[in-house]
Structures are given as structure tokens and as C-alpha cells.
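Minutes, project check-in
Item: structure for the 57-residue chain
Input as provided by the requester:
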Amino acid sequence: MKAKSKSYITSAKTMFAVLQILKQNGGSMPIRILMQEVEKNIELSAWEKSILEIYFG
């Protein structure tokens, strides 16, 4: 089986966290608050944080 890329692993764990947080909060919330909650719920490397910063400011 081919090893998963770093970006693939990051996107999978981030999306899983996003879906869990949205489910807990009625399915909707502002993106900035959502991303703050994601950072509280999963451990992100400096590289992962920099990628998320590019997309979500």
C-alpha cells in the first residue's frame, strides 16, 4: 500500500475534526471560530498551521 502524503493526512484529520465540531454546534458556525476549535481539538505541526493560515487567515 502506498504511503499517504503529509497533506493527505492533514486534510483527513482536519476534515474529521471540522465535521465533529460542526455536529456538536448545530451544523453551522463562523469559519474563524471553527478553525480556532479545530486547533484546540487536534495537534497541528508548524507546517500544518502555516497551511491552514494560508487558506483561512
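Outcome recorded: Residues 6-24 form the longest helix (19 residues).
No further action items on this chain.
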